[in-house]
Amino acid sequence: xxxxxxxxxxxxxxxxxxxxxxxxxxxxxxxxxxxxxxxxxxxxxxxxxxxxxxxxxxxxxxxxxxxxxxxxxxxxxxxxxxxxxxxxxxxxxxxxxxxxxxxxxxxxxxxxxxxxxxxxxxxxxxxxxxxxxxxxxxxxxxxxxxxxxxxxxxxxxxxxxxxxxxxxxxxxxxxxxxxxxxxxxxxxxxxxxxxxxxxxxxxxxxxxxxxxxxxxxxxxxxxxxxxxxxxxxxxxxxxxxxxxxxxxxxxxxxxxxxxxxxxxxxxxxxxxxxxxxxxxxxxxxxxxxxxxxxxxxxxxxxxxxxxxxxxxxxxxxxxxxxxxxxxxxxxxxxxxxxxxxxxxxxxxxxxxx
Length: 353
Description:
11 strands; 5-stranded antiparallel sheet; Rieske Iron-sulfur Protein
């Protein structure tokens, strides 16, 4: 497929199946929570159905956010989790919808029948602050929701393309700020009320899992960085281990993934593994019509310089390679995106052996 004739398909069958499965899971969770909550509390008049509904949306959104924050370190620890990265934006937008429903329901139920404007009442301070638990918890939730809405609104490819991948990624790192705000929101709110055992368990489990996975991934990355730091050139394996028009993916300094491709039988090229479109794994793609083709949406890059063929302007970093006998050596220092570098060729006699 030529890049000139390529039309990106955003809603392929795999994404439709994923989204259907995701929303079936959301509906199942909400139904289970509401059903169990009603059986345990409504009959005893401990909680009203409306409060159970509000908490169902709250816990569902928090569980989804926890999963979102776990996808990154899981993908760094094991490549089998990379498909989750493919759909993480859909997961995030769905989480935003559930969180927004929680916020609207809670605002109407707790502040919709007073004399003050409900949105003003969210930020009202108590007459006196005797302890930290007297600090209003609602503003933390409001600001967290605003951050989540901002990320959902800018998750479209339009913003990725116009903001640029580095700025777009930096903006979406605000998810950790939103997570911190939500933790405070829960600690000052739900955990101060009776019948909150499940909320407490979910909060502490989330902190443990998210913190643990990020710590393990950071330790693994630091170990890889330390091992690579002493090497000017990294041995990535034999060229015979690389199928023609395919790649092997290696991790080098700063935890960057690099795709080392073999194409035209005897040529080698190394590029950054993240596609500029949606950070798709280029190393899982193929060389088609002379271009590295992303397996997610078909975006293409020339192996010799990391540039998309005209009229497209996307670029990925390139890396220098050397051959030592049959071993492929990689310089772990990336060249600027779109930098041409000499083509590394397997000697004809060796390639025919």
